[in-house]
Specification:
Chain A: A connexon is composed of a hexamer of connexins. Chain A: Pfam families: Connexin. Chain A: It is found in: Cell junction, Gap junction; Cell membrane. The complex is a heterodimer of chains A (about 270) and B (about 240). With about 270 residues, chain A is mainly alpha-helical. Chain A has one domain: Gap junction channel protein cysteine-rich domain (de novo design (two linked rop proteins), Up-down Bundle), CATH 1.20.1440.80. Chain A has helices at about 5-15, 20-45, 60-70, 75-85, 85-110, 115-125, 130-160, 185-265; strands spanning about 50-55, 165-170, 180. Chain A has a 3-stranded antiparallel β-sheet with strand order 1-3-2, covered by helices on one side. In chain A, strand 2 and strand 3 form a beta hairpin. In chain A, helix 1 (about 5-15) packs antiparallel against helix 2 (about 20-45), helix 1 crosses helix 5 and helix 2 (about 20-45) runs antiparallel to helix 8. Chain B has a domain at about 20-90 and about 140-220: Gap junction channel protein cysteine-rich domain (de novo design (two linked rop proteins), Up-down Bundle), CATH 1.20.1440. Helices cover about 70% and strands about 5% of the residues of chain B. Chain B has helices spanning about 5-15, 20-45, 60-70, 75-85, 85-110, 115-120, 130-155, 185-225, 230-240; strands at about 50-55, 165-170, 175-180. Classes of the chains: A mainly alpha (about 270), B mainly alpha (about 240). At the A-B interface, helix 1, helix 2, strand 1, strand 3 and helix 8 of A face helix 3 and helix 4 of B.
C-alpha cells in the first residue's frame, strides 16, 4: 500500500485546512499509518498460518479461521484510513475548481497581459474558509466523523469488543464436535487494537472540535455582518430624521419670516 | 516502516536545535534506528517460528509464546522511537507558526519581494521567549516517554537477560512443558545495547534541559543588572 502517495495527496489539502485540521493530519500519519505499517503488519502477518486447532481433520482450521476472522484487523484499518482521508479530497477539488475559475477570469479580462507572476501567486494563495468552501469543508468533516465512528462500531460489532482471546471454541462443519483453536499473539494484538482505537477516538475528538470551531466562527461572522448592516441602516434613518427636522425648522423660519415681513408691510 | 521519510521530517527540526539536540538526533538515528532496522529485525524475525515447546499438544506453542512475550521487543522499541521523536514536531509547528506571522507582518509593511520571503524561510530562530518554553516542554516529554518505555520494558521483561529455557503450564499444555527461545544470547546483546543507548539519550536530554535553563538564567541576569556575576556566567556558558 503506497501510503507515501496518500501523504502527498493529503499534504496538498493541508495548506487550506485550519490548525486543528493540520493537527488531525499529523495524528493520522504519525500515529495511525506509521503504527499500522511498522507494527501491526508484523504482528498480524502470521495470523492464519499460526492459527492452530486441536484436530487433524482437514479443512477444520480454514473453516474456523474464516468463522472467527471474517475480515482481518489490518484490512479493516487500511479501509478505515482510506475512507477517512477521502473527504479531504472534496476540499482539494473545490479549491482547484475555484482557482481554475479565477484563472479563466484573469485570462479573459486581461488577455495577453497576464504575467506568470500573477498565475504563480494565484497558485500559492491560501483561500479563506468562507462561503461555498465553508460548506464543502464542513461536509467533508461531517463525513470524516461518520466514517470514523462507523468503522469503530463495525470493529466492535464484528469482534465482540476490542480484546483478542487466546482460545476460541469452534464447531463448524467439518470440525468434529467442538474443537479448541488457538490464536497467535493475542496479547500483542490486543495492545495494538487498543492503540488504534485510542488514536481513532483522538481523531474523532479533533474533528468535532474543528466542526464546532468552524460553526462558531461562521456565526460570529454572520452576527458581525448583521451588526454592520444595522448600524448603516441606523445611520440612514438618522439622516432622514435629521432632514425632516431640518425641513420643519426651515418651514418655521419661512413662516416666521413671512409673518415678520407681513408685519413689516402692515 | 519508512524510516527515511521519518528522518526527513525529524531532521527538519535539526536546524533549530541546540548543539546537544543535534547530538541527540545523531545518536537516535545512527545507534537506535539503524541498529533496529539492520540487526534487531533479523535477530527477532523468527522469534515465534522458532519458539519450540517440548510437546505435541496443538496450541501449546502459541499459548506459551503469548504468555512469555506479550509484546515483542522490536515493537516496543519501534513504538518508543516514534513516541520519543514526536515532541520535536511541536517545535516544528511553533516555528512554522512564527514564520507565518513574520510573513504577514512583512506583507503589511510592504516587503513582499521574493528575497524577503527567502530570508524568512532561511532565518534561524533563536530559542527565546515562547519558543524556549515549547522547546523545554518537548524535551520534558522526550525524557518522560523514554523513561516510561524503559520502565515498561522492565515491567514486562524484568532484567535484561533472555533465557534459553522457560517452563510453561498454561492451558492446553499438559502439566509443565519446557519451551526453548531462539537466539537468546544474541537477543541479550542487542537488548543491552538498546537499553544503554536509551540511557545515553536520557542523559543527553537532561543535559540539554540544564543547558537551556542555565542560558536563560544568565540571559536574564545580564539583562536585569550589569553584574559581574551575570557576565561571568554567560562568558562560561557561551565558551562551551
Amino acid at each position: 500500500m503506497s501510503w507515501g502517495a496518500l501523504y502527498a495527496q493529503l499534504g496538498g489539502v493541508n495548506k487550506h485546512s485550519t490548525s486543528l485540521g493540520k493537527i488531525w493530519l499529523s495524528v493520522l500519519f504519525i500515529f495511525r499509518i506509521s503504527i499500522l505499517v511498522i507494527a501491526a503488519e508484523a504482528v498480524w502477518g502470521d495470523e492464519q498460518s499460526d492459527f492452530t486447532c486441536n484436530t487433524q481433520q482437514p479443512g477444520c482450521k480454514n473453516v474456523c479461521y474464516d468463522h472467527f476472522f471474517p475480515v482481518s484487523h489490518i484490512r479493516f484499518w487500511c479501509l478505515q484510513l482510506i475512507f477517512v482521508s477521502t473527504p479531504a479530497l472534496l476540499v482539494a477539488m473545490h479549491v482547484a475548481y475555484h482557482k481554475h475559475n479565477v484563472k479563466k477570469g484573469l485570462l479573459a479580462n486581461r488577455g495577453g497581459g497576464v504575467k506568470g507572476e500573477d498565475l504563480k501567486s494565484l497558485k500559492k494563495r491560501r483561500l479563506p474558509i468562507t462561503g461555498a468552501l465553508w460548506w464543502t469543508y464542513t461536509s467533508s468533516l461531517f463525513f470524516r466523523l461518520l466514517f470514523e465512528a462507523g468503522f469503530m462500531y463495525a470493529l466492535y460489532y464484528v469482534y465482540d469488543g476490542f480484546q483478542m482471546a487466546r482460545l476460541v471454541k469452534c464447531e463448524q462443519w467439518p470440525c468434529p464436535n467442538k474443537v479448541d483453536c488457538f490464536i497467535s499473539r493475542p496479547t500483542e494484538k490486543t495492545v495494538f487494537t487498543i492503540f488504534m482505537v485510542g488514536s481513532s477516538s483522538i481523531c474523532i475528538v479533533l474533528n468535532v472540535a474543528e466542526l464546532a470551531y468552524l460553526i462558531v466562527k461562521a456565526l460570529l461572522r454572520c452576527s458581525a455582518r448583521a451588526r454592520g448592516r444595522r448600524s448603516f441602516v441606523h445611520q440612514d434613518e438618522m439622516s432622514t430624521e435629521k432632514a425632516q427636522l431640518q425641513n420643519e425648522k426651515n418651514a418655521k423660519l419661512l413662516s416666521s419670516a413671512s409673518d415678520s415681513s407681513s408685519n413689516k408691510t402692515v | 516502516m519508512n524510516w527515511a521519510s521519518f528522518y526527513a521530517v525529524i531532521s527538519g527540526v535539526n536546524r533549530h536545535s541546540t548543539g546537544i539536540g543535534r547530538i541527540w538526533l545523531s545518536v537516535l538515528f545512527i545507534f537506535r534506528i539503524m541498529v533496529l532496522v539492520v540487526a534487531a529485525e533479523s535477530v527477532w524475525g523468527d522469534e515465534k517460528a522458532h519458539f519450540i515447546c517440548n510437546t505435541q499438544q496443538p496450541g501449546c506453542n502459541s499459548v506459551c509464546y503469548d504468555h512469555f512475550f506479550p509484546i515483542s521487543h522490536i515493537r516496543l522499541w519501534a513504538l518508543q522511537l516514534i513516541m520519543v521523536s514526536t515532541p520535536a514536531l511541536l517545535v516544528t509547528m511553533h516555528i512554522a507558526h512564527r514564520r507565518h506571522i513574520d510573513k504577514k507582518l512583512y506583507r503589511q509593511a510592504g516587503r513582499t519581494s521574493p528575497k524577503d520571503i527567502e530570508q524568512i524561510k532561511n532565518q534561524k530562530m533563536k530559542i527565546t521567549g515562547a519558543l524556549w518554553w515549547t522547546y523545554m516542554i518537548s524535551l520534558l516529554f522526550r525524557v518522560l516517554f523514554e523513561s516510561a518505555f524503559m520502565y515498561l520494558f522492565y515491567m514486562i521483561y524484568p532484567g535484561y537477560k533472555m533465557f534459553r529455557l522457560v517452563k510453561c503450564d498454561s492451558y492446553p499444555c499438559p502439566n509443565i512443558v519446557d519451551c526453548f527461545v531462539s537466539r537468546p544470547t544474541e537477543k541479550t546483546v542487542f537488548t543491552i545495547f538498546m537499553l544503554a543507548v536509551s540511557g545515553i539519550c536520557i542523559l543527553l536530554n537532561i543535559a540539554e534541559i540544564v543547558f537551556l535553563v542555565a542560558r536563560a538564567t544568565s540571559r536574564h541576569l545580564n539583562n536585569s543588572k550589569d553584574s559581574p556575576v551575570g557576565a561571568w556566567i554567560s562568558q562560561k556558558l557561551f565558551s562551551l
